[in-house]
Amino acid sequence: MNYIAIKMLMGDKGKYIGIVMGLTFASLIMTQQPAIFIGLMARSYSFLSDVGLPDIWVMDKKVQFIDDIKPLQDTELYRVRGVSGIEWAMPMYKGMLKARMADGTFQTCNVIGLDDTTLIGAPPILLEGKLEDLRRSDSVIIDVDGATEKLAKPPLVDGDKKIPLKVGDNLELNDHRAFVVGIAKVTRTFQSQPVIYTTYSRAKSYAPRERKLLSFVLVKAKAGENIHELTERIRANTGLAAYTQQEFMDLTYNYFMHNTGIPINFGISITLGFIVGAAIAGQTFYNFTLENLRQFGVLKAMGTSNWTLLRMILLQAVLVGSIGYGMGVGLTALFGYLMRHSILAFKFPWQLLVFSGAGVSLICMLAALISILKVIRLEPAIVFKG
Amino acid sequence: MGIAVRCENLTKIYDTSEQKVVALNSVNLKINLGELMMLVGPSGCGKTTLISVIAGILDQNSGLCELFGENLLTMKSKDKLQFRATQIGFVFQAFNLLPSLNAAENVSVPLIINGVKRDTAKQQAIEVLERVGLGERWKSYPNQLSGGQQQRVAIARALVHSPRLIVCDEPTSALDHTSGQNVMNLLKEVAVHKDRALVIVTHDARIFEFADRIAEMDDGHIVNMR
Fold first, then answer.
1. ipTM value
2. In CATH, what number does B35-58+86-225 get?
3. Last residue in a domain, options A207, A224, A239
């Protein structure tokens, strides 16, 4: 009877494609919008995931997320270094500074100042140049997206593409010369501003004069040290906030979740997508069963049991559900692949596959359940009505 | 000559919230094996309800209906399904062929319901299609066949599992005169058998000549038997 169920499903190509398309659409909007949402939220802490070496981030107690800089005095670095169990503690400057472009316009950049000696906190992938070149006079490393987009030079001929900033070029940071010695690949941040790496001391010279300029102290625990206990000890001894990398990511993520409109906007979009997708797919599948009700009636009159009919409908639901889900997920993956070089935030973790799979299964099961009830209640005597 | 169907004081009432409709009112009927019985009468007289009860797809409110000595009303639903699948063949007014199956696949449906493997069922279906003159059209889909040919496929489907009772509902009403005559000739030729009974519900006076007996119904009763 499985063969008959499949033939019934695929016999009318138009209806079959309609159901599969409905489920593909449902699956697409159930994965594409959440993938953008997850991508966007991941960008909120992408800077943290790029800096892999330190175990603990130390900062002012009032800091709420990664870009909420409440500078410390440089002396705090030595207080942190004084806590037992620390292998090393290095300063980091993080601030937004204006870069003057070749055409006279300004672009706000995310300037990262790394410890002059160790360069801890450096970009994860260097596409051009060497990290040690940061020790040269006025040197900076810029991220490739910033170099090709927002910091790119105007074209020589109007209408041409912008000319990417490259190693050897200069730019002006807060009236100071900055000489590009490297191009790095970094994960895009939430604000998608160009990222400029330099040394801590040079970053302080670029930054407007302030009494406090130390953004974070990056801490590495001694081997065998309990990270959580060390974090507690730093908090107790210095009165500063100290978080493990994961805790700081969570703090940042939660700030964006609770203090921005992103979750509610995407939440509405995802919920609507689910409802619309469910309605389209459910209605299409239900209509398919209704249109085939007479055929089910014929099978029932001929002696097919309700259990067999139920299995036939479930098989049809599983089949169209799997195909629709696969196509929807495939389209989402294709969308992500085509957009990989764009500014669009997109992240497609396996959990999202499970979520959308559960969603499409739920839709199919609901549609199948309603259809099954209709078929089970069907009087086989319907076949004698002309 | 054995008795295929025995109905005694058969009553069926459709009870809707607005009104009660007495579709069968103490119907008494016997159909013998090897007999072609026609049920005739005006619309709404209870013919379709009577064959639905006889075929075991509708339960009566009271009275007795026995098929080959078995009381379907007291039968467990699983046994009744099994009984229907093995003992009864159906021919419908609107053919009711599955449009996505070809002729051979349509004919093999009753065999598949009875657990016969698809390949074996298909072979048997093609053999029966040959008996009804459609051996070469076994690959054709219903929409590629004329009304008369579709009804012949439906007859093959009703015969393929060798049932002991064939129930036909207006088998010629959707066909022109010639096709109707051909279908009746075919039914008479291949379906009538000493171990099988045929019940045909019809309005079509042109085919009355094929009946062994005709039961005239009106208002839920059998008013005349000839």
1. 0.86
2. 3.40.50.300
3. A239
